[in-house]
């Protein structure tokens, strides 16, 4: 004879102990969290919409300083043409700073680029006459990394573009550079990002080279 088991009712799942445990763990997680300062890099991306005639005219007045990164090294150019150091252009390609090994941007190569850009920024094109407009911001530059360049190399190059090289000799680097370097803070009154020193002092000229970077990824 078959025996039928009585059906047992399944009670509701009690989540209260788990919720109590999570509530106890949240304060410990907050206490163990490490708070860090986040640096801001002003990076613009080229817009796809067509430019007006006024924008195109304004662009012609800019220096249009551009650094192109490939696996072979760095190209530097402006609206005047190639901006390689004397005797550094590698043949017809105008490669200014060549990597010893393809794809590897060493600290020496990045440092050489930084010193040359400091020379262009302060000595060669320090005067506003090269911009054909006194209102043009000479802190702007375009960085064009090709598809064969690693992300890490792009970040290191961005840092090199922003910071004034310490120990530079041609021309000498400022002796009163702030310890924080080229750090951006948001000015609520001006409603814009600015380079700030102690007590709200604007230290742009003493801390930064090209902090207005246009990152053109994949451009040729």
Short synopsis of the structure:
The protein is α/β, with parallel strands linked by helices. 27% of the residues lie in helices and 16% in strands.
Word description of this protein:
The protein contains 5 helices and 9 strands. With 220 residues, the protein is an alpha/beta fold. It has one domain. The strands form 2 sheets. Strands 1, 2, 3, 4, 5, 6 and 9 form a 7-stranded mixed beta sheet that branches. Strands 7-8 form a two-stranded antiparallel ribbon. A hairpin with a 2-residue loop joins strand 2 and strand 3. Helix 3 packs parallel to helix 4. The longest helix has 18 residues. The N and C termini lie far apart (86 Å). The relative contact order is 0.15. The mean pLDDT is 79.
Beta-strand segment tally: 9
The helix content, as a percent range, equals 25-40%
Number of helices: 5
The major sheet is characterized as: 7 strands, mixed
Q: Write down the secondary-structure element order.
A: HEHEEEEHEHEEHE
Give the topology.
Elements lengths: L15 H17 L10 E2 L8 H9 L4 E5 L2 E6 L2 E2 L14 E2 L8 H18 L15 E6 L5 H12 L21 E4 L4 E4 L8 H4 L4 E4 L5
Parallel strand pairs: 1-9, 2-6, 6-9
Antiparallel strand pairs: 2-3, 3-4, 3-5, 7-8
Which terms summarize this structure?
7-stranded mixed beta sheet, 220 residues, alpha/beta, two-stranded antiparallel sheet, 9 strands
């Amino acid at each position: 004879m078959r025996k039928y088991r009585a059906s047992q009712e399944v009670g509701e799942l009690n989540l209260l102990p788990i919720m109590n445990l999570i509530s106890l763990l949240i304060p410990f997680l907050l206490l163990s969290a490490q708070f860090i300062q986040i640096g801001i890099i002003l990076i613009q991306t080229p817009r796809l919409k067509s430019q007006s005639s006024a924008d195109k005219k304004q662009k012609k007045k800019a220096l249009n300083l551009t650094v192109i990164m490939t696996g072979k090294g760095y190209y530097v150019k402006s609206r005047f043409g190639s901006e390689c150091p004397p005797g550094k252009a590698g043949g017809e390609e105008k490669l200014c700073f060549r990597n010893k090994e393809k794809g590897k941007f060493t600290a020496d190569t990045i440092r050489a680029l930084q010193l040359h850009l400091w020379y262009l920024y302060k000595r060669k094109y320090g005067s506003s006459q090269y911009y054909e407009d006194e209102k043009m911001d000479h802190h702007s530059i375009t960085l064009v990394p090709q598809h064969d360049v690693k992300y890490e190399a792009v970040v290191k190059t961005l840092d090199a573009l922003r910071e004034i090289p310490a120990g530079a000799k041609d021309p000498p680097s400022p002796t009163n550079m702030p310890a924080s370097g080229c750090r951006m803070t948001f000015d609520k009154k001006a409603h814009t990002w600015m380079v700030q020193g102690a007590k709200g002092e604007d230290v742009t000229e003493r801390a930064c080279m090209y902090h207005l970077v246009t990152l053109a990824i994949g451009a040729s």
